[in-house]
Amino acid sequence: MQSTGVPATTRLTVDVWADVLCPWCYLGERRLDTAIASYPHAAHIALRVHSFQLDPDAPTKAVPTLEYLAGKYGVGQAQARADSGCIGLCGRSAMTSVVRRRAQLVPAPPRARG
Questions:
Q1: 54-104 pLDDT, tens per residue?
Q2: Residue 16: in which H helix or E strand, if any?
Q3: CA distances (Å), 95 to each of 5, 23, 72, 92, in order?
Q4: Domain edges within the chain
Q5: Strands 63-64 and 45-51, how do they pair?
Q6: Taking the domain 12-106, which CATH number applies?
Q7: Residue of 28, 64, 33 lying closest to 47 (CA atoms)
Q8: What one-character DSSP code corresponds to residue 110?
Q9: Rounded to two decimals, what is the model's pTM?
Q10: Which of 62, 75, 81, 114 has the fewest CB atoms inside 10 Å of its own CB, making it the most exposed?
């Protein structure tokens, strides 16, 4: 293998923007953590996570997830259940039971102070 001439102390910085209330963001972050940890040069990777609100029009009070998704996308609750069911399948190994329970409600996001 040829040397690239890049010092061994060089780091790769990965910036991730994620919504702390989004189960898909959580799952993606856990998968990225796992991928970095398994990489032989993980010590040279810096992960910076930034908060980002995906839905600035989210309700101001917590509502059941299926009710929220059905209203947001204009579908029935059965369709919302089918569409959102994949998070349970995809995230079983990465998500704790606390996070799975949290996914039952869409919490009210903090509002920006003006």
A1: 888 887 888 888 888 888 889 998 888 887 776 666 666 555 554 555 555
A2: strand 12-18
A3: 40, 9, 24, 6
A4: 12-106
A5: unpaired
A6: 3.40.30.10
A7: 33
A8: P
A9: 0.62
A10: 114
